[in-house]
Each structure stands twice: as structure tokens, then as C-alpha cells.
Design a protein that fits this description.
The protein has 370 residues and is of the alpha/beta class. The chain is built from 13 helices and 13 strands. Bound molecules: iron/sulfur cluster.
Length: 370
Amino acid sequence: MNKSINDAGKKARVDTSPKENKGFLPMSKKEMRAQGIDQCDFILVTGDAYVDHPSFGAAIVGRVLQARGFSVGIIAQPNWQENADFNQLGAPRLGFLVTAGNLDSMVNHFTVNKKRRREDVYAPGGQAGLRPDRATIVYCGKIRENFGEIPLIIGGIEASLRRFAHYDYWQEKVRRPILFDSRADLLVYGMGELAMIEIAEGLSAGIPVDQLTHIKGTAVISREAEAGDAVLLPTTEEVMADTQAYARATALIYQSNNAHDPRIYRQPTGNRYLQQNPPQPPLSQAEFDALYDLPFTYRWHPAYDQVGGVPGLEEVKFSITANRGCYGNCTFCALAIHQGKYVQMRSRDSIVREAGRMAKDPDFKGYIHD
Ligand code: SF4
């Protein structure tokens, strides 16, 4: 039976009931059929290989939606030069979800000296070149090309950190908010589980995506000039032309993503606005624990076995995430601006449970390294 009450006596936002492990999220029509899925509710397109581990954003969002009763298919590292990979699971019933992967695709591709990296630890066999530069924008373009005006939601670190006008080190210029370049409908910023559940339930209830404009933890493009007591940032055009305007915008952006700040932040861009809604409230400890009780296989998809798997799994296979968020807000660090300023902690029992699972792994050498 699903448990709907969490430890705080409120309706649980993350289902905390035990889950049967049905294997990997499907990556092909054959795997969909094996799981009795004719049409996926959502298709998640990711710039990383599919590793079914909670350190991989696509896996955690997929599992959270699955736990809410939605079917989710994964298209990992599609060939963006052609259409076939984007069509391999057919059209989703409710929408496409797009992430560049665990890293910004430009950070994934280039060293700080702007030399192209030879290895991609988030790709099978560590092979570089399996995702495009600016993957979020490229994937969204292919989805629009193939599926037209289907609901399209972007998230992950690339979308999250590029949600306002931002300096792009690789091009040495300020780029406009990524929603304008990607033509996606919604951007989920930060750790997206709760926002994604609200979006999924809204779409499932028949609400058009262009009416899902005020979900916490999301950003949208708005045409409306008025938005209550919204915080107005310098315009995108101002921050492109004037470093002082850029600095003022950055200071305001860094004060946002605060669970105790209920204000909307808006940045005029052309004749429209990038609107960042307030963040989702932090997860309760029971909700945070529940994420780690989802039925991950903790393995890369077997499709990658023949090339030796995905090297990025090695780094996290025997490490445990104990908390999220940071109040430090250091401007050189992505953590607070992505995960928020509120430190959320898993319970001791949940951490011990995960350590116990690791200890049963035949590769476990007796220590947890991080
Ligand atoms: S995690 Fe990041 S934001 Fe927090 S103190 Fe360290 S460097 Fe600063």
C-alpha cells in the first residue's frame, strides 16, 4: 500500500512506500514491451549514458516519476546529427524531459584552457564526442523538429545554471537565458524532484503546458509586464552591454534560490521576461530518505557492458550522499545556486541502510571513500 503521510503529518510529496525493482528504465521499444509499456508517459533525453544510480540526475528523476505511476523511457546520448535516435521510443504521452547530463556540456567537453577533453567519464567506455556542445539546446531543437509543439521541459545543471542571462566562458560573451535559445516550455532549476512531480501531475490532469506558469522550482518565459512584487533584474540587453549591470544581476540571482524567499525574479529579455518562480521547499528528511529507497539497480545499463561500462560510476559506486545544499553561496561554486542554501540531511538509518547494501556488492573492498 502506498504511504501518503510523511513524518511531519503532511501529505508526502515523494512516495515513501517500498518499490519493487522492475529493472532498468526502458531504452528501446523492446524493453518497453517487456515492461508492458505501449507508450511512455515521459521520455527523458540525456547527454550522459544511462547509469541507474541516484548520483545521476536522469536516473533519479526517472525513478521519482516511475514511483508516482508514470512510465518513463530514456534516450541516452542520441546521435544529434540524425533523427532516428530521437524517434526510437515513439512519442511520449505527456512530454519530453531534457538534460545535458551531470555536467554542463561545455565543461564536459573542454578543459579550463579551452582544449577539447579526450575522455568523457559519463559515456560508455569513456568515449568523448557522444554529446553535442550546448546539448540542452541541440536536443530541444531535434525534439521540436521531430515532434513539434509537444511539452518540453529542461533541467539539470546546464539548464539550471544558465537560467538567467549568463557569462559564457567558452564564447567570452553573455548569452541570453537558455529557455529563449532552447525553445523549451519550462525549465526546472535546482534539484528537480518536487517540481517534476507537480509538472507531471499537471500535464496528466490535462492542464496545457503553457498554463503551468507558477510551479515552484521552475522558470518560464512570460509576456506579461506585471508580476506582483517580483524582483526585477537588469535586462538581458543591459547585462550584455554593461559589466556593472551584470554584477547587479548576479548579486540578485545569488540571493534567489532561497526557500524562505517567496518572490518571483524576472529578467526582461527583448519584449518578454524570464520568470524564475520561488524554489520548492526543502525535502523533509523522510522525503530525502525515500529517494534513496527507490529501486535503483546501481548499475550502468547492460547495453554498455561490451565496452566496459561507464567510468563515471566508479567514482560514486562506493560513496554516499548524506546531504544537499549549502549556505556558503560562494560565487565560484555551483552548489548553492543549484541545490539551494538550505542544508538537507538524510537520516542515520537511511545512510546505514545504503552502506549495508554496498557491503553486499561483490566489488566492495571494505571502505566507503566519500
Ligand atoms: S560547497 Fe560551495 S558554496 Fe558551499 S562553502 Fe563550499 S565552495 Fe562555498
